[in-house]
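Retry 2 of 3 after timeout on previous attempt. Resubmitting structure tokens to design endpoint.
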């Protein structure tokens, strides 16, 4: 199970490894609380290293590779070439670094905030 808004994994009862869902939830909170993706137009995942953990991107249209089928979602780097994807909710905001612009998710797409 996961939380309804951010999709944070919940810790199962009698969990033998509570650190697994807890750590995954902490990575999402860290990345999404102040959403500042590096780019929103990439369709191919960038090459990442362990030091890129926590960096975010908004997946561009017709994405390929590890991002295939994740168009418009938030890609969170969790390690070298490792990804966690979060579908945005209506009203979520992001400041896209490479454009220096604010965007808001309108329920179907990311739209620039004038």
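Retry 2 succeeded. Sequence:
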């Amino acid at each position: 199970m996961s939380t309804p808004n951010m999709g944070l994994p919940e810790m199962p009862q009698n969990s033998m490894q509570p650190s697994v869902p807890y750590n995954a939830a902490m990575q999402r909170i860290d990345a999404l609380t102040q959403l500042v993706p590096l780019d929103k137009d990439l369709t191919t995942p960038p090459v990442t290293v362990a030091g890129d953990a926590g960096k975010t991107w908004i997946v561009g249209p017709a994405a390929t590779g590890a991002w295939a089928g994740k168009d418009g979602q938030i890609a969170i780097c969790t390690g070298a070439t490792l990804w966690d994807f979060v579908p945005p909710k209506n009203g979520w905001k992001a400041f896209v670094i490479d454009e220096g612009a604010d965007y808001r998710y309108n329920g179907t797409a990311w739209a620039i905030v004038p």
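Attempt log closed. The CA atoms of residues 39 and 88 lie 15 Å apart.
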